Amino acid sequence: MAREPLWKTIRDTVFSDISNAHYKSGDKLPTEAQLAARFGVNRHTVRQSLAALVDDGVIFTRRGAGAFVATTPIDYPIGKRVRFHQNLSAIGKAGSREITASETRSANEKERNALKLVEGEKVHVIEGISYADDVPLAVFRSAFPAGPYPDLLRHIQATGSTTHALNSCGVNDYTRASTRLTSKRATNLVALKLKIPENAPVLKSISINITSDGQPVEYGATWFAGDRVTLSVDAET
Amino acid sequence: MAREPLWKTIRDTVFSDISNAHYKSGDKLPTEAQLAARFGVNRHTVRQSLAALVDDGVIFTRRGAGAFVATTPIDYPIGKRVRFHQNLSAIGKAGSREITASETRSANEKERNALKLVEGEKVHVIEGISYADDVPLAVFRSAFPAGPYPDLLRHIQATGSTTHALNSCGVNDYTRASTRLTSKRATNLVALKLKIPENAPVLKSISINITSDGQPVEYGATWFAGDRVTLSVDAET
DNA sequence: TTAGATTTGTTCGTATGTATC
DNA sequence: TGATACATACGAACAAATCTA
Lengths: 237, 237
Known about the structure:
The structure is a homodimer of 237-residue chains.
Chain A lengths: L5 H14 L12 H8 L3 H13 L3 E4 L3 E4 L4 E4 L6 H7 L4 E12 L2 H7 L6 E11 L2 E11 L6 H8 L2 H7 L5 E12 L2 H7 L6 E11 L4 E10 L3 E6 L3
Parallel strand pairs in A: 3-10
Antiparallel strand pairs in A: 1-2, 4-5, 5-6, 6-9, 7-8, 8-9
Chain B binds a DNA duplex (21 and 21 nucleotides) through helix 3.
Protein backbone atom coordinates (compact mmCIF):
# COMPACT_ATOMS: atom_id res chain seq x y z
CA MET A 1 0.00 0.00 0.00
CA ALA A 2 1.32 3.38 -1.02
CA ARG A 3 1.91 5.44 2.11
CA GLU A 4 1.16 9.14 2.07
CA PRO A 5 3.86 11.37 0.59
CA LEU A 6 6.03 13.12 3.14
CA TRP A 7 5.05 16.58 1.98
CA LYS A 8 1.35 15.87 2.56
CA THR A 9 2.06 14.63 6.08
CA ILE A 10 4.04 17.77 6.79
CA ARG A 11 1.35 19.94 5.25
CA ASP A 12 -1.28 18.33 7.45
CA THR A 13 0.89 18.60 10.56
CA VAL A 14 1.55 22.28 9.99
CA PHE A 15 -2.11 22.81 9.22
CA SER A 16 -3.23 21.16 12.44
CA ASP A 17 -0.68 23.25 14.35
CA ILE A 18 -2.42 26.27 12.92
CA SER A 19 -5.90 24.88 13.53
CA ASN A 20 -5.05 24.03 17.13
CA ALA A 21 -4.10 27.64 17.66
CA HIS A 22 -0.41 26.95 18.12
CA TYR A 23 -0.13 29.73 15.60
CA LYS A 24 -2.65 32.53 15.30
CA SER A 25 -3.53 34.84 12.44
CA GLY A 26 -0.52 36.82 11.33
CA ASP A 27 1.94 34.69 13.26
CA LYS A 28 5.19 33.83 11.56
CA LEU A 29 5.79 30.16 10.97
CA PRO A 30 9.22 28.66 11.61
CA THR A 31 11.62 29.11 8.72
CA GLU A 32 11.80 26.49 6.02
CA ALA A 33 15.18 25.45 7.38
CA GLN A 34 13.78 24.97 10.88
CA LEU A 35 10.81 22.98 9.60
CA ALA A 36 13.13 20.85 7.46
CA ALA A 37 15.24 20.07 10.51
CA ARG A 38 12.20 19.33 12.64
CA PHE A 39 10.77 16.84 10.15
CA GLY A 40 14.14 15.52 9.07
CA VAL A 41 13.54 16.24 5.41
CA ASN A 42 15.04 18.39 2.71
CA ARG A 43 14.02 22.02 2.52
CA HIS A 44 12.38 21.37 -0.88
CA THR A 45 9.98 18.95 0.74
CA VAL A 46 8.94 21.57 3.27
CA ARG A 47 8.56 24.07 0.45
CA GLN A 48 6.14 21.77 -1.33
CA SER A 49 4.06 21.49 1.84
CA LEU A 50 4.03 25.25 2.36
CA ALA A 51 3.17 25.85 -1.29
CA ALA A 52 0.10 23.67 -0.85
CA LEU A 53 -0.96 25.69 2.19
CA VAL A 54 -0.43 28.92 0.25
CA ASP A 55 -2.57 27.56 -2.54
CA ASP A 56 -5.31 26.77 -0.04
CA GLY A 57 -5.09 30.26 1.38
CA VAL A 58 -4.07 29.01 4.83
CA ILE A 59 -0.76 30.84 4.87
CA PHE A 60 1.00 33.44 2.77
CA THR A 61 4.69 34.01 2.25
CA ARG A 62 6.79 37.14 1.86
CA ARG A 63 10.11 36.77 0.18
CA GLY A 64 12.88 37.45 2.64
CA ALA A 65 10.44 37.64 5.55
CA GLY A 66 8.93 34.24 6.07
CA ALA A 67 5.62 32.40 6.01
CA PHE A 68 2.67 33.78 7.93
CA VAL A 69 -0.72 32.47 8.94
CA ALA A 70 -3.43 34.05 6.83
CA THR A 71 -6.57 35.37 8.40
CA THR A 72 -9.14 32.75 7.58
CA PRO A 73 -12.09 34.27 5.84
CA ILE A 74 -15.19 33.96 7.94
CA ASP A 75 -18.09 32.30 6.24
CA TYR A 76 -21.16 34.46 6.21
CA PRO A 77 -24.30 32.70 5.00
CA ILE A 78 -26.85 34.61 2.98
CA GLY A 79 -29.88 32.51 3.50
CA LYS A 80 -33.41 33.44 4.33
CA ARG A 81 -32.47 33.95 7.98
CA VAL A 82 -29.70 36.04 9.29
CA ARG A 83 -27.60 34.13 11.77
CA PHE A 84 -24.55 36.21 12.39
CA HIS A 85 -23.76 35.31 15.97
CA GLN A 86 -24.67 31.64 15.75
CA ASN A 87 -22.42 31.30 12.76
CA LEU A 88 -19.45 32.92 14.41
CA SER A 89 -19.76 30.99 17.65
CA ALA A 90 -19.84 27.78 15.63
CA ILE A 91 -16.26 28.46 14.61
CA GLY A 92 -15.19 29.68 17.99
CA LYS A 93 -15.24 33.39 17.26
CA ALA A 94 -16.83 35.99 19.45
CA GLY A 95 -19.14 38.16 17.39
CA SER A 96 -19.95 41.65 18.46
CA ARG A 97 -21.49 44.69 16.94
CA GLU A 98 -20.76 48.31 17.66
CA ILE A 99 -23.37 50.89 16.76
CA THR A 100 -21.58 54.11 15.93
CA ALA A 101 -24.54 56.27 15.02
CA SER A 102 -28.29 56.19 15.12
CA GLU A 103 -30.93 58.70 14.21
CA THR A 104 -34.51 59.10 13.10
CA ARG A 105 -35.03 61.22 10.03
CA SER A 106 -37.07 61.57 6.86
CA ALA A 107 -36.43 58.73 4.43
CA ASN A 108 -34.45 59.59 1.34
CA GLU A 109 -35.51 58.46 -2.11
CA LYS A 110 -33.71 55.10 -2.05
CA GLU A 111 -35.04 54.27 1.37
CA ARG A 112 -38.57 55.25 0.42
CA ASN A 113 -38.28 53.10 -2.66
CA ALA A 114 -36.95 50.04 -0.84
CA LEU A 115 -39.24 50.28 2.18
CA LYS A 116 -42.29 51.41 0.20
CA LEU A 117 -42.70 54.67 2.04
CA VAL A 118 -44.14 57.94 0.79
CA GLU A 119 -42.40 61.28 0.92
CA GLY A 120 -42.08 62.66 4.40
CA GLU A 121 -42.26 59.35 6.24
CA LYS A 122 -39.47 58.75 8.69
CA VAL A 123 -36.92 56.02 9.14
CA HIS A 124 -34.68 54.87 11.96
CA VAL A 125 -31.12 54.58 10.71
CA ILE A 126 -28.29 52.80 12.50
CA GLU A 127 -24.67 52.63 11.45
CA GLY A 128 -21.99 50.45 12.92
CA ILE A 129 -19.30 47.87 12.66
CA SER A 130 -19.43 44.09 13.05
CA TYR A 131 -16.51 42.34 14.70
CA ALA A 132 -15.32 38.78 15.08
CA ASP A 133 -12.79 38.49 17.87
CA ASP A 134 -12.16 42.24 17.73
CA VAL A 135 -11.33 42.11 14.05
CA PRO A 136 -13.70 44.31 12.05
CA LEU A 137 -15.56 42.25 9.50
CA ALA A 138 -18.03 44.67 8.06
CA VAL A 139 -19.53 48.11 8.35
CA PHE A 140 -23.24 48.46 7.94
CA ARG A 141 -26.03 50.96 7.64
CA SER A 142 -29.64 49.90 8.10
CA ALA A 143 -32.87 51.79 7.74
CA PHE A 144 -36.15 50.74 9.35
CA PRO A 145 -39.55 52.36 8.84
CA ALA A 146 -40.19 54.50 11.90
CA GLY A 147 -43.97 54.63 11.64
CA PRO A 148 -44.79 51.03 12.58
CA TYR A 149 -41.94 50.74 15.09
CA PRO A 150 -41.66 54.05 16.97
CA ASP A 151 -39.61 52.57 19.83
CA LEU A 152 -37.24 50.51 17.71
CA LEU A 153 -34.17 52.66 18.23
CA ARG A 154 -34.54 52.51 21.99
CA HIS A 155 -34.80 48.72 21.87
CA ILE A 156 -31.77 48.46 19.61
CA GLN A 157 -29.77 50.63 21.96
CA ALA A 158 -30.90 48.51 24.90
CA THR A 159 -30.38 45.06 23.44
CA GLY A 160 -27.78 45.68 20.74
CA SER A 161 -29.65 43.20 18.63
CA THR A 162 -31.86 44.08 15.70
CA THR A 163 -33.68 40.78 15.87
CA HIS A 164 -34.57 41.20 19.56
CA ALA A 165 -35.49 44.82 19.07
CA LEU A 166 -37.84 43.95 16.24
CA ASN A 167 -39.31 41.17 18.35
CA SER A 168 -40.08 43.73 21.03
CA CYS A 169 -41.85 45.79 18.37
CA GLY A 170 -44.07 42.89 17.40
CA VAL A 171 -42.07 41.53 14.48
CA ASN A 172 -41.66 37.89 15.35
CA ASP A 173 -40.08 36.82 12.13
CA TYR A 174 -38.44 38.41 9.18
CA THR A 175 -36.57 37.03 6.21
CA ARG A 176 -34.25 38.30 3.56
CA ALA A 177 -36.17 39.15 0.42
CA SER A 178 -33.33 40.21 -1.84
CA THR A 179 -29.61 40.79 -1.77
CA ARG A 180 -27.47 42.53 -4.34
CA LEU A 181 -23.74 42.04 -4.26
CA THR A 182 -20.87 43.69 -5.96
CA SER A 183 -17.16 44.06 -5.49
CA LYS A 184 -15.76 47.55 -4.99
CA ARG A 185 -12.70 49.33 -3.73
CA ALA A 186 -12.82 50.54 -0.16
CA THR A 187 -13.42 54.27 0.20
CA ASN A 188 -11.15 55.86 2.77
CA LEU A 189 -13.93 56.05 5.34
CA VAL A 190 -14.81 52.38 4.98
CA ALA A 191 -11.13 51.41 4.89
CA LEU A 192 -10.55 53.30 8.12
CA LYS A 193 -13.42 51.58 9.90
CA LEU A 194 -12.47 48.12 8.65
CA LYS A 195 -8.77 48.73 9.28
CA ILE A 196 -7.85 47.69 5.78
CA PRO A 197 -5.75 49.52 3.18
CA GLU A 198 -7.50 52.11 1.10
CA ASN A 199 -8.67 50.66 -2.20
CA ALA A 200 -8.63 47.15 -0.77
CA PRO A 201 -11.48 45.09 -2.21
CA VAL A 202 -14.75 45.10 -0.33
CA LEU A 203 -17.91 43.17 -0.93
CA LYS A 204 -20.87 45.51 -0.93
CA SER A 205 -24.26 44.08 -0.18
CA ILE A 206 -27.63 45.79 -0.47
CA SER A 207 -30.39 43.79 1.13
CA ILE A 208 -34.05 44.07 1.96
CA ASN A 209 -35.71 42.15 4.78
CA ILE A 210 -39.44 41.61 4.98
CA THR A 211 -41.89 40.33 7.57
CA SER A 212 -43.82 37.12 7.08
CA ASP A 213 -46.68 39.12 5.58
CA GLY A 214 -44.41 40.82 3.09
CA GLN A 215 -43.93 44.20 4.72
CA PRO A 216 -40.38 45.55 4.26
CA VAL A 217 -38.75 46.10 7.65
CA GLU A 218 -35.10 46.72 6.88
CA TYR A 219 -33.11 48.23 4.06
CA GLY A 220 -29.48 47.60 4.70
CA ALA A 221 -26.12 48.19 3.10
CA THR A 222 -23.11 46.25 4.29
CA TRP A 223 -19.48 46.56 3.28
CA PHE A 224 -17.52 43.39 4.02
CA ALA A 225 -13.73 43.28 4.17
CA GLY A 226 -12.99 41.14 1.13
CA ASP A 227 -10.13 39.19 2.64
CA ARG A 228 -11.90 38.43 5.89
CA VAL A 229 -15.27 37.23 4.73
CA THR A 230 -16.74 34.65 2.42
CA LEU A 231 -20.42 34.93 1.67
CA SER A 232 -22.13 31.66 1.05
CA VAL A 233 -25.43 31.10 -0.66
CA ASP A 234 -26.86 27.68 0.01
CA ALA A 235 -29.72 26.09 -1.78
CA GLU A 236 -32.22 25.30 0.94
CA THR A 237 -32.58 25.68 4.72
CA MET B 1 -46.82 74.31 -3.05
CA ALA B 2 -43.11 73.60 -3.05
CA ARG B 3 -41.90 73.18 -6.59
CA GLU B 4 -39.18 70.69 -7.36
CA PRO B 5 -35.63 71.97 -6.97
CA LEU B 6 -33.92 72.89 -10.22
CA TRP B 7 -31.11 70.42 -9.70
CA LYS B 8 -33.53 67.48 -9.45
CA THR B 9 -35.25 68.49 -12.65
CA ILE B 10 -31.92 68.73 -14.41
CA ARG B 11 -30.81 65.40 -12.96
CA ASP B 12 -33.97 63.74 -14.28
CA THR B 13 -33.65 65.37 -17.68
CA VAL B 14 -30.06 64.26 -18.12
CA PHE B 15 -31.00 60.82 -16.85
CA SER B 16 -33.81 60.45 -19.35
CA ASP B 17 -31.47 61.63 -22.11
CA ILE B 18 -29.25 58.73 -21.14
CA SER B 19 -32.15 56.31 -20.82
CA ASN B 20 -33.51 57.29 -24.22
CA ALA B 21 -30.15 56.38 -25.69
CA HIS B 22 -29.26 59.91 -26.64
CA TYR B 23 -26.06 58.96 -24.90
CA LYS B 24 -24.68 55.45 -24.80
CA SER B 25 -22.30 53.74 -22.39
CA GLY B 26 -18.97 55.50 -22.34
CA ASP B 27 -20.27 58.57 -24.16
CA LYS B 28 -19.12 61.93 -22.93
CA LEU B 29 -21.81 64.23 -21.63
CA PRO B 30 -21.74 67.94 -22.48
CA THR B 31 -19.46 69.95 -20.22
CA GLU B 32 -20.79 71.50 -17.05
CA ALA B 33 -20.58 74.91 -18.70
CA GLN B 34 -22.63 73.72 -21.70
CA LEU B 35 -25.27 72.13 -19.49
CA ALA B 36 -25.43 75.25 -17.35
CA ALA B 37 -26.01 77.34 -20.46
CA ARG B 38 -28.61 74.91 -21.80
CA PHE B 39 -30.64 74.93 -18.58
CA GLY B 40 -29.93 78.58 -17.83
CA VAL B 41 -28.51 77.89 -14.38
CA ASN B 42 -25.28 78.29 -12.51
CA ARG B 43 -22.58 75.72 -12.92
CA HIS B 44 -22.98 74.65 -9.29
CA THR B 45 -26.54 73.67 -9.91
CA VAL B 46 -25.50 71.43 -12.78
CA ARG B 47 -22.75 70.01 -10.60
CA GLN B 48 -25.27 69.06 -7.95
CA SER B 49 -27.34 67.21 -10.56
CA LEU B 50 -24.32 65.38 -11.91
CA ALA B 51 -23.16 64.51 -8.40
CA ALA B 52 -26.50 62.82 -7.81
CA LEU B 53 -26.10 60.79 -11.00
CA VAL B 54 -22.58 59.81 -9.96
CA ASP B 55 -23.93 58.74 -6.60
CA ASP B 56 -26.47 56.55 -8.33
CA GLY B 57 -23.79 55.05 -10.53
CA VAL B 58 -25.36 56.37 -13.71
CA ILE B 59 -22.34 58.41 -14.78
CA PHE B 60 -18.76 58.86 -13.69
CA THR B 61 -16.50 61.88 -14.01
CA ARG B 62 -12.84 62.32 -14.76
CA ARG B 63 -11.28 65.57 -13.71
CA GLY B 64 -10.06 67.48 -16.69
CA ALA B 65 -11.81 65.13 -19.06
CA GLY B 66 -15.54 65.28 -18.50
CA ALA B 67 -18.54 63.27 -17.38
CA PHE B 68 -19.23 59.92 -19.00
CA VAL B 69 -22.11 57.49 -19.06
CA ALA B 70 -21.28 54.52 -16.85
CA THR B 71 -21.70 50.98 -18.02
CA THR B 72 -24.64 49.71 -16.02
CA PRO B 73 -23.62 46.72 -13.95
CA ILE B 74 -25.29 43.64 -15.23
CA ASP B 75 -27.47 41.92 -12.72
CA TYR B 76 -26.54 38.31 -12.33
CA PRO B 77 -29.02 36.29 -10.31
CA ILE B 78 -27.72 33.49 -8.12
CA GLY B 79 -30.78 31.37 -7.82
CA LYS B 80 -31.27 27.69 -8.11
CA ARG B 81 -31.11 27.86 -11.89
CA VAL B 82 -28.49 29.48 -13.96
CA ARG B 83 -30.01 31.80 -16.49
CA PHE B 84 -27.15 33.71 -17.95
CA HIS B 85 -28.34 34.21 -21.51
CA GLN B 86 -32.00 34.77 -20.67
CA ASN B 87 -30.99 37.41 -18.21
CA LEU B 88 -28.77 39.25 -20.62
CA SER B 89 -31.22 39.19 -23.49
CA ALA B 90 -33.86 40.61 -21.17
CA ILE B 91 -31.81 43.79 -20.95
CA GLY B 92 -30.89 43.82 -24.60
CA LYS B 93 -27.38 42.49 -24.27
CA ALA B 94 -25.90 39.75 -26.40
CA GLY B 95 -24.32 37.16 -24.16
CA SER B 96 -21.55 34.95 -25.42
CA ARG B 97 -18.99 32.63 -23.96
CA GLU B 98 -15.53 31.89 -25.21
CA ILE B 99 -13.87 28.67 -24.13
CA THR B 100 -10.14 29.24 -24.03
CA ALA B 101 -8.98 25.85 -22.79
CA SER B 102 -10.34 22.41 -22.13
CA GLU B 103 -8.79 19.19 -20.99
CA THR B 104 -9.49 15.91 -19.26
CA ARG B 105 -7.19 15.05 -16.38
CA SER B 106 -7.06 13.51 -12.93
CA ALA B 107 -9.03 15.49 -10.38
CA ASN B 108 -7.05 17.40 -7.79
CA GLU B 109 -7.99 17.30 -4.13
CA LYS B 110 -10.39 20.23 -4.19
CA GLU B 111 -12.18 18.87 -7.20
CA ARG B 112 -12.38 15.40 -5.68
CA ASN B 113 -13.73 16.89 -2.52
CA ALA B 114 -16.38 19.01 -4.21
CA LEU B 115 -17.45 16.42 -6.75
CA LYS B 116 -17.17 13.46 -4.36
CA LEU B 117 -14.61 11.60 -6.43
CA VAL B 118 -11.90 9.23 -5.28
CA GLU B 119 -8.24 9.56 -6.08
CA GLY B 120 -7.42 8.79 -9.68
CA GLU B 121 -10.83 9.66 -11.11
CA LYS B 122 -10.78 12.09 -13.97
CA VAL B 123 -12.49 15.42 -14.59
CA HIS B 124 -13.25 17.50 -17.66
CA VAL B 125 -12.08 21.04 -17.11
CA ILE B 126 -13.04 24.05 -19.21
CA GLU B 127 -11.80 27.58 -18.88
CA GLY B 128 -13.14 30.61 -20.61
CA ILE B 129 -14.56 34.11 -20.60
CA SER B 130 -18.17 35.31 -20.52
CA TYR B 131 -19.09 38.40 -22.50
CA ALA B 132 -22.03 40.75 -22.70
CA ASP B 133 -21.95 42.78 -25.88
CA ASP B 134 -18.26 42.00 -26.31
CA VAL B 135 -17.45 43.33 -22.86
CA PRO B 136 -15.84 40.64 -20.71
CA LEU B 137 -17.92 40.06 -17.60
CA ALA B 138 -16.26 37.09 -16.00
CA VAL B 139 -13.65 34.41 -16.39
CA PHE B 140 -14.51 30.93 -15.27
CA ARG B 141 -13.10 27.47 -14.74
CA SER B 142 -15.42 24.52 -14.37
CA ALA B 143 -14.73 20.90 -13.58
CA PHE B 144 -17.13 18.05 -14.40
CA PRO B 145 -16.74 14.40 -13.42
CA ALA B 146 -15.51 12.59 -16.51
CA GLY B 147 -16.67 9.10 -15.53
CA PRO B 148 -20.44 9.55 -15.88
CA TYR B 149 -20.15 11.93 -18.85
CA PRO B 150 -17.33 10.70 -21.10
CA ASP B 151 -18.48 12.72 -24.12
CA LEU B 152 -19.19 15.95 -22.29
CA LEU B 153 -16.22 17.89 -23.61
CA ARG B 154 -17.15 17.09 -27.20
CA HIS B 155 -20.70 18.27 -26.62
CA ILE B 156 -19.52 21.45 -24.97
CA GLN B 157 -17.23 22.16 -27.90
CA ALA B 158 -20.07 21.51 -30.32
CA THR B 159 -22.82 23.48 -28.61
CA GLY B 160 -20.88 26.01 -26.55
CA SER B 161 -23.46 25.51 -23.84
CA THR B 162 -22.91 23.55 -20.66
CA THR B 163 -26.60 23.07 -20.13
CA HIS B 164 -27.17 21.61 -23.59
CA ALA B 165 -24.06 19.47 -23.33
CA LEU B 166 -25.19 18.05 -20.01
CA ASN B 167 -28.63 17.43 -21.50
CA SER B 168 -26.99 15.40 -24.25
CA CYS B 169 -25.26 13.38 -21.53
CA GLY B 170 -28.53 12.57 -19.83
CA VAL B 171 -28.59 15.32 -17.23
CA ASN B 172 -31.95 16.96 -17.76
CA ASP B 173 -31.82 19.25 -14.80
CA TYR B 174 -29.26 20.58 -12.41
CA THR B 175 -29.37 23.22 -9.73
CA ARG B 176 -26.94 25.25 -7.74
CA ALA B 177 -26.26 23.61 -4.40
CA SER B 178 -23.89 26.13 -2.89
CA THR B 179 -22.08 29.31 -3.75
CA ARG B 180 -19.27 30.96 -1.86
CA LEU B 181 -18.43 34.56 -2.63
CA THR B 182 -15.59 36.82 -1.74
CA SER B 183 -14.06 40.02 -2.94
CA LYS B 184 -10.46 39.99 -4.14
CA ARG B 185 -8.02 41.98 -6.16
CA ALA B 186 -7.61 40.93 -9.76
CA THR B 187 -4.44 38.98 -10.43
CA ASN B 188 -2.67 40.15 -13.55
CA LEU B 189 -3.89 37.14 -15.51
CA VAL B 190 -7.52 37.71 -14.57
CA ALA B 191 -7.15 41.46 -15.08
CA LEU B 192 -5.81 40.84 -18.56
CA LYS B 193 -8.67 38.57 -19.51
CA LEU B 194 -11.33 40.88 -18.07
CA LYS B 195 -9.64 43.97 -19.50
CA ILE B 196 -9.66 45.73 -16.14
CA PRO B 197 -6.80 47.37 -14.25
CA GLU B 198 -4.59 45.12 -12.22
CA ASN B 199 -5.74 45.02 -8.59
CA ALA B 200 -9.23 46.12 -9.56
CA PRO B 201 -11.82 44.45 -7.35
CA VAL B 202 -13.25 41.17 -8.54
CA LEU B 203 -15.99 39.04 -7.12
CA LYS B 204 -14.86 35.46 -6.83
CA SER B 205 -17.50 32.76 -6.73
CA ILE B 206 -17.03 29.08 -5.98
CA SER B 207 -20.11 27.07 -6.77
CA ILE B 208 -21.27 23.50 -6.89
CA ASN B 209 -24.10 22.30 -9.09
CA ILE B 210 -25.93 19.06 -8.50
CA THR B 211 -28.42 16.92 -10.40
CA SER B 212 -31.98 16.42 -9.21
CA ASP B 213 -30.86 13.27 -7.39
CA GLY B 214 -28.06 15.05 -5.60
CA GLN B 215 -25.07 14.02 -7.67
CA PRO B 216 -22.53 16.82 -8.06
CA VAL B 217 -22.05 17.65 -11.74
CA GLU B 218 -20.05 20.86 -11.77
CA TYR B 219 -17.49 22.52 -9.55
CA GLY B 220 -16.89 25.99 -10.84
CA ALA B 221 -14.92 29.07 -9.99
CA THR B 222 -15.87 32.40 -11.53
CA TRP B 223 -14.16 35.75 -11.29
CA PHE B 224 -16.56 38.62 -12.03
CA ALA B 225 -15.41 42.13 -12.91
CA GLY B 226 -16.59 44.03 -9.84
CA ASP B 227 -17.71 47.15 -11.64
CA ARG B 228 -19.58 45.33 -14.38
CA VAL B 229 -21.65 42.87 -12.43
CA THR B 230 -24.09 42.83 -9.57
CA LEU B 231 -24.94 39.46 -8.12
CA SER B 232 -28.42 39.20 -6.74
CA VAL B 233 -29.78 36.63 -4.38
CA ASP B 234 -33.54 36.59 -4.36
CA ALA B 235 -35.73 34.79 -1.94
CA GLU B 236 -37.92 32.73 -4.23
CA THR B 237 -37.89 31.07 -7.64
C1' DT C 1 8.14 67.21 -25.78
C1' DT C 2 6.08 71.38 -24.54
C1' DA C 3 2.77 75.02 -23.77
C1' DG C 4 -1.64 76.58 -23.59
C1' DA C 5 -6.54 75.74 -23.55
C1' DT C 6 -10.18 73.01 -21.65
C1' DT C 7 -12.62 70.69 -18.03
C1' DT C 8 -13.67 69.07 -13.54
C1' DG C 9 -12.73 69.69 -8.36
C1' DT C 10 -12.50 72.72 -4.33
C1' DT C 11 -13.23 76.60 -1.54
C1' DC C 12 -14.48 80.86 -0.57
C1' DG C 13 -18.70 84.33 -0.35
C1' DT C 14 -23.62 86.03 -0.94
C1' DA C 15 -28.56 85.71 -0.92
C1' DT C 16 -33.17 83.65 -0.46
C1' DG C 17 -36.88 80.56 0.81
C1' DT C 18 -38.45 76.80 3.93
C1' DA C 19 -38.79 73.98 7.94
C1' DT C 20 -38.18 73.58 12.88
C1' DC C 21 -38.14 74.79 17.58
C1' DT D 1 -43.68 85.49 16.53
C1' DG D 2 -38.63 85.29 16.41
C1' DA D 3 -34.46 82.72 16.10
C1' DT D 4 -32.09 79.19 14.05
C1' DA D 5 -30.83 75.71 10.94
C1' DC D 6 -30.94 73.82 6.44
C1' DA D 7 -31.54 73.44 1.39
C1' DT D 8 -31.25 75.84 -2.78
C1' DA D 9 -29.06 78.85 -6.09
C1' DC D 10 -25.70 82.10 -7.98
C1' DG D 11 -20.85 84.23 -8.36
C1' DA D 12 -15.79 84.24 -8.40
C1' DA D 13 -11.34 82.42 -8.15
C1' DC D 14 -8.00 78.96 -8.25
C1' DA D 15 -6.12 74.03 -8.29
C1' DA D 16 -5.50 69.77 -10.65
C1' DA D 17 -6.04 66.69 -14.36
C1' DT D 18 -6.58 66.21 -19.19
C1' DC D 19 -6.48 67.19 -23.96
C1' DT D 20 -4.62 69.30 -28.07
C1' DA D 21 -2.04 71.95 -31.27
